[in-house]
């Protein structure tokens, strides 16, 4: 219609709008079409909405932190799980994201500690895990009596590559540490965060030596 034709014309001429769309497109999981949709929505809001949106974003940026021990998202220097002395500190579950950690916690089937990678190896771009994240993990494995590690990365090419890479590192640091992978039950090429609680719970309980 006429409005869409007008908007397309404006989009082509407005560098500011293109920059806004590009910013949203840089976010994980945001396509060109969705980035355009978000940009159009925001520029149609009044100043009060935009100012509140910016304030909420700034507050989250200032108040939300990453746990200094496990990298989980939290409001304090150390997250509640790391501070919980009733958790089994001899067990370490390595996950790709804080969302995956939350998903496992929902199952109530794991009582150990966690380590969040905040990413996975990217097979296509050949990018690896952040060096600081990896170094901290190696220190945890060296300095703590970790008897069991569960590699709970996704059942995707990136997740599999990450699990294989971590297995080699853990074996080099400690041959006595038992390494497990979530049991098959999660479909191949699936993200852990999308598994239902029962499937994920069974995958944890029936984990396989890796």
Q: Which properties best describe this structure?
A:
alpha/beta; five-stranded mixed β-sheet; two-stranded antiparallel sheet; 210 residues
Q: What's the gyration radius in Å? A: 21 Å
Tell me the β content: 5-15%
Largest sheet composition:
5 strands, mixed
Strand order in space, largest sheet: 4-3-5-6-7
Explain the overall architecture.
This protein is an alpha/beta fold and 210 residues long. The chain has nine helices and seven strands, in the order ααααββαβαβαβαβαβ. It has helices at 2-13, 15-25, 32-43, 47-63, 80-83, 98-107, 131-143, 157-173, 197-205, and strands at residues 65-66, 73-74, 88-95, 112-116, 148-152, 178-181, 208-209. The strands form two sheets. A five-stranded mixed sheet has the order 4-3-5-6-7. A two-stranded antiparallel ribbon has the order 1-2. Strand 5 (148-152), helix 8 (157-173) and strand 6 form a beta-alpha-beta unit. Helix 2 packs across helix 3 and helix 6 (98-107) packs across helix 9 (197-205). The radius of gyration is 21 Å and the shape is elongated. It starts with a helix and ends with a strand. The mean pLDDT is 86.
């Amino acid at each position: 219609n006429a409005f869409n034709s007008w908007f397309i014309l404006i989009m082509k001429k407005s560098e500011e709008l293109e920059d806004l769309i590009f910013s949203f497109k840089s976010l994980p999981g945001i396509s060109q079409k969705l980035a355009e949709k978000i940009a159009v929505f925001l520029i149609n809001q009044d100043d009060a909405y935009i100012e509140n949106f910016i304030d909420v974003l700034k507050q989250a940026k200032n108040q939300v932190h990453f746990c200094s021990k496990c990298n989980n998202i939290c409001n304090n220097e150390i997250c509640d799980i790391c501070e919980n002395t009733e958790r089994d500190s001899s067990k370490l579950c390595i996950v790709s994201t804080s969302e995956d950690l939350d998903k496992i916690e929902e199952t109530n089937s794991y009582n150990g500690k966690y380590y969040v990678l905040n990413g996975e190896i990217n097979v296509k771009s050949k990018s690896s895990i952040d060096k600081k994240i990896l170094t901290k993990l190696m220190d945890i494995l060296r300095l703590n009596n970790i008897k069991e590690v569960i590699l709970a990365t996704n059942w995707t090419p990136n997740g599999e590559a990450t699990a294989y890479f971590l297995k080699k590192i853990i074996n080099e640091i400690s041959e006595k540490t038992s390494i497990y992978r979530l049991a098959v039950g999660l479909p191949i090429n699936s993200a852990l965060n999308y598994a239902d609680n029962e499937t994920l719970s069974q995958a944890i309980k029936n984990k396989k030596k890796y």
